[in-house]
Design brief:
Elements lengths: L2 E5 L2 E3 L5 E8 L8 E6 L5 E7 L6 E3 L7 E6 L4 E6 L8 E7 L2 E2 L3 E5 L2
Length: 112
């Protein structure tokens, strides 16, 4: 079965950085478009970023463009999200997702 396991969240000060990871199993990772989505307290799911199966192209929400970078390692079945210049409004549960599935999420809290 499809499993997506995120890690790397935590508490960070504004302006800080975090790197999220997502280990995938149960499907052909190297053939799959992958995404990061997030859900802030009291709000709905927000798309953050997507990446092509071969990693050749990525797209970003305007709210994170220039600060976040999505990458993948198909040899390790792992998706990453490098988050720099974090802001309080980035506070959310971050989920790794593919069509029809998402993981359990990892909490990111940006606060001084």
């Amino acid at each position: 079965q499809v499993q997506l396991v995120e890690s790397g969240g935590g508490l960070v000060q504004p302006g800080g950085s975090l790197r999220l990871s997502c280990v995938a199993s149960g499907f052909t990772f190297r053939s799959s478009y992958m995404n990061w989505v997030r859900q802030a307290p009291g709000k709905g799911l927000e798309w953050v970023s997507s990446i092509y199966p071969d990693g050749s192209k990525s797209t970003y929400a305007d709210s994170v463009k220039g600060r976040f970078t999505i990458t993948r390692d198909n040899a390790k079945n792992t998706l990453y999200l490098q988050m720099n210049s974090l802001k309080s409004e980035d506070t959310a549960v971050y989920y790794c997702a593919k069509a029809g599935y998402r993981g359990q999420g990892t909490q990111v809290t940006v606060s001084s």
